[in-house]
Design a protein that fits this description.
Strand content: 25-35%
CATH superfamily of the largest domain: NAD(P)-binding Rossmann-like Domain
CATH architecture of the largest domain: 3-Layer(aba) Sandwich
CATH topology of the largest domain: Rossmann fold
Low-confidence stretches: none
CATH class of the largest domain: Alpha Beta
Oligomer: single chain
Structural class: alpha/beta
Mean pLDDT: 94
Number of strands: 11
Strand order of the largest sheet: 3-2-1-4-5-6
Number of helices: 9
Distance between the termini: 24 Å
Order of helices and strands: EHEHEEHEHHEHEEHHEEEH
């Protein structure tokens, strides 16, 4: 059994804990991290999970794999002990990897692994395959209900509450998008890492009162394929996050134990 820890117990973390409570062959949830340990223990008890609750930088000694689903600024505290021990961290705050490339160096030095699941996006297999050749252009267009962008540094002063028509709030590179929308655009960072990099991946972000789901469209031109793909994600209780994100992590884990694996 692979021992798994979750950092932290927010919306995605609770969803993951529920999945582990139902059972995932080959994997056992052994610990979670949370700022309010009493509240976290009560939430775990409610979903039928009895495991240790601790600080984010204490998880390494308990687990083989740590799933990071925390506010992005916590990523170094979560990942560094795990990577130094030559273990694996599954990263959902992919945008922070663009700000902390030293984590990739740390993994290489100590034999650790950083895994980024597909999350709320699609097509990373195709983009990754195209990146083995030449990607001429790669573009992500994201449309979210205005509530899903509120509080983002890149949306300050936009007046999202009162807009009646779609409004483009950002156009630039994936690196810039990850900095200005750190809780909203981890998909842009993941796409850029699968493709030609954060400075060659273009991003547009729209606040659209006419949509009810977080919508991402990828447009790619390469020497092997031209593609356009759109996904509409049902938001979780946190409007910035789609329900599919947690399921993407579980799918990644299930592949480890599968005798038939589909997708690269």
């Amino acid at each position: 059994m692979m021992r798994v820890a979750i950092a932290v117990l927010g919306t995605i973390g609770r969803s993951l804990a529920s999945r582990f409570a139902a059972g995932i062959p080959g994997f056992e949830l052994v610990a979670v991290a949370a700022r309010d340990r009493t509240k976290a223990a009560a939430a775990l008890h409610e979903i039928g999970v009895e495991v240790e609750v601790m600080a984010v930088d204490e998880l390494e000694s308990f687990a083989d794999i740590v799933i990071e689903c925390a506010p992005g600024h916590l990523l170094p505290r979560i990942a560094e002990p795990v990577l130094r021990a030559g273990k694996e961290v599954i990263v959902l705050s992919a945008g922070e990897l663009l700000e902390h490339p030293d984590l990739i160096d740390l993994a290489a030095t100590h034999g650790g692994t950083i895994s980024v699941p597909t999350g709320a996006l699609l097509g990373l297999d195709a983009v990754g395959a195209a990146a083995e050749g030449e990607i001429r252009s790669l573009r992500l267009i994201t449309r979210k209900p205005p509530a899903g962008l509120m509080g983002a540094p890149g949306a300050e002063g936009v007046g999202l509450v009162s807009i009646a028509e779609p409004l483009r709030v950002f156009a630039g590179t994936a690196r810039e998008a990850a900095r200005r929308f750190p809780a909203n655009l981890n998909v842009a960072a993941a796409l850029s890492l699968a493709g030609p990099g954060p400075d060659r991946t273009e991003v547009e972000i729209w606040a659209d009162p006419g949509v009810r789901r977080n919508t991402h469209t990828i447009e790619m031109e390469s020497d092997v394929a031209t593609l356009t793909m759109t996904i509409e994600n049902v938001p979780s209780e946190n409007p910035r996050t789609g329900r599919i994100t947690a399921q993407s992590v579980i799918s990644m884990l299930r592949k480890r134990e599968a005798h038939l694996r589909v997708g690269s």
